[in-house]
TrEMBL record:
It is found in: Cell membrane. Residues 4-83 form the ATP synthase F1 complex delta/epsilon subunit N-terminal domain. This is ATP synthase epsilon chain. It is a peripheral membrane protein. The gene is atpC. InterPro entries: ATP_synth_F1_dsu/esu, ATP_synth_F1_dsu/esu_N, ATPsynth_dsu/esu_N. It holds the Pfam family ATP-synt_DE_N. F-type ATPases have 2 components, CF(1) - the catalytic core - and CF(0) - the membrane proton channel. CF(1) has five subunits: alpha(3), beta(3), gamma(1), delta(1), epsilon(1). CF(0) has three main subunits: a, b and c.
Length: 93
């Protein structure tokens, strides 16, 4: 089964990294969904929620500030100024 290699990083730390079956992010033109095999893409991000569906199951949601998202050869890189997992009380800036 195909999967995505995902890295979500804030200015000072890696927030989440691993294999996922889907990523959804608040792109400049609206939310975008990324699945394995997606065409290469570079997009600015608006503040919102990045949703990651790990291949191990479950779901990860992370509130993010502005940043960008890059997709190339099933590798998704999300770089943001600040990130906070709901309920964690931890913010990276």
């Amino acid at each position: 089964m195909a999967h995505l290699e995902v890295d979500l990083v804030a200015a000072d730390r890696k927030v989440w990294s691993g294999e996922a079956s889907m990523v959804s992010a608040p792109a400049a033109d609206g939310y975008i969904g990324i699945l394995p095999g997606h065409a290469p893409l570079l997009s600015l991000l608006n503040p919102g929620t990045v949703r990651i569906t790990p291949t191990s199951g479950g779901s990860q949601e992370v509130r993010v500030d502005s940043g960008f998202l890059s997709v190339d050869a099933d590798r998704v890189t999300v770089v943001v100024d600040a990130a906070e997992a709901p309920g964690s009380g931890t913010t990276a800036r």
